[in-house]
Fold:
Amino acid sequence: MQQVNLGLIGSGTVGGGVYQAIQRNGALMASRLGVQLRVAKVAVRDVRKARAVKISPALLTTDWQSVIDDPSINLIGEFMGGTTTARTVVLNAFKQGKSVVTANKALLSAHGEELFAAAQRYGTNLYYEASVAGGIPIIKVLREGLIGNRITRLYGIVNGTCNYILSRMKLEGADFAEVLADAQRLGYAEAEPSLDIDGFDAAHKTGILASLAHGFWVNPKQIYVEGICAITQQDIQFAGQLGYTIKLLGIVKRVDAAGKPGSYAVQVSVYPALVPNTHVLGSVNGVFNAILVRGDVVGDTLYYGRGAGQDATASAVLSDLADAALDLKCGIKSRVCPFVPHERDGAVLPIGAVVSRYYVRLSVIDKPGTLAKITAILGAAKIGISSVIQPEGHEGKSVPLILMIHDATNANMEKALGKIGKLAAVKAAPVMIRVENFE
Ligand code: NAP
Ligand code: HSE
Structure:
């Protein structure tokens, strides 16, 4: 049977999981593919480090270049993370005519366009199923399964760490920092966890999905990003009373230009949003991810599974290894193109122009006339209020005032809240969380 010799660069949560999964299901894959996968070398930072997944010391090296240069190795797995050395690893592998499997969404976000072009130039391939949504095969879905659709909407819970934190804050009243520490212990969080909680990891993934869905490489600088650090127990509780759950969403929405048929821009953003409890994404909890994709032919489709952690990610990598092994077996280097830019004039909609509904929490002095001043500012900005909740308070004390706001642009809302925040009766910066209805 034909054999593919694999060089792994990195053997932490992901690389270790891949090594372990090949030991476990390599024979099954060989019987399905007619190709045997063999791990030939593993590059790590420290060969003496104690590892949860035991790897024969004979396979370990600290010299990743020697793995790439080894003529017996015909496929590289990049699982080291980061964007600088990892970029060199991938480019050097391509130069040697070797395809690469990666789980590195930060790398793709920063250098994807360059790497896909290089893969094509060198007649190699770049496989990246594990870069988005852990074990959910969403890259295959967009690249192959829904190839005949125009994607009009994509809503994703794509960061396992944030969903784990928000779920436990809601369901157990747990403390943010404690739950983040658990997510790190469980191998969900990035080496630099601010990538998770500040929304950047979700933005890397949302950008990859947007690029695939719309055929132009989305510049990460054009993605509007808000993380979950400002989400408080108070907002989680009020949202619950209103029938909503707060989720960090990656949103890719086609917005047609008024009066210009066929002309459109794409909203690509990441922010915490109020999701109706009755919507399926409202009940995706823990480390699970889910992605709703709407195609113009198929309608709504939904994908659900573990979004982070060793085994879920290893499963996605195995699928890429299978594709790569078949490509090598058949001598076709890019049977499945990694990314095909096809939309020349693709444009990202600036966040100011994005229209949505809002939850606003104000801290106000509970005295007559306060609400009138606030509604006057919103009214002058042509922003409509759909409901107001003011829990019973005491005259003269600061109390929360919750406003649910009808559709308005982000720019209008920011301006109006700026004015509201300056009112003498408003005692803290207004909290604004968008509300998503999945229309
Ligand atoms: P990790 O546990 O920190 O593992 C990183 C590995 O890379 C370690 O084995 C480390 O060696 C090795 N390494 C780092 N720099 C190296 C160098 N210069 N030369 C050789 N080896 C080097 O990270 P991870 O969680 O597995 O994540 C790896 C990648 O997968 C990242 O891009 C991440 O975003 C992505 N990802 C992670 C998950 C997840 O659930 N964790 C899911 C999907 C994608 P030592 O072991 O000696 O330190
Ligand atoms: N840190 C990432 C997450 C890993 O929590 O989703 C999976 O990409």
Remarks:
- DSSP finds 13 helices and 16 strands in the chain.
- Residues 134, 159-161, 188-190, 196, 201, 307-308 surround L-homoserine (ligand 2) (CB under 6 Å).
- The first strand starts at residue 2 and ends at 9.
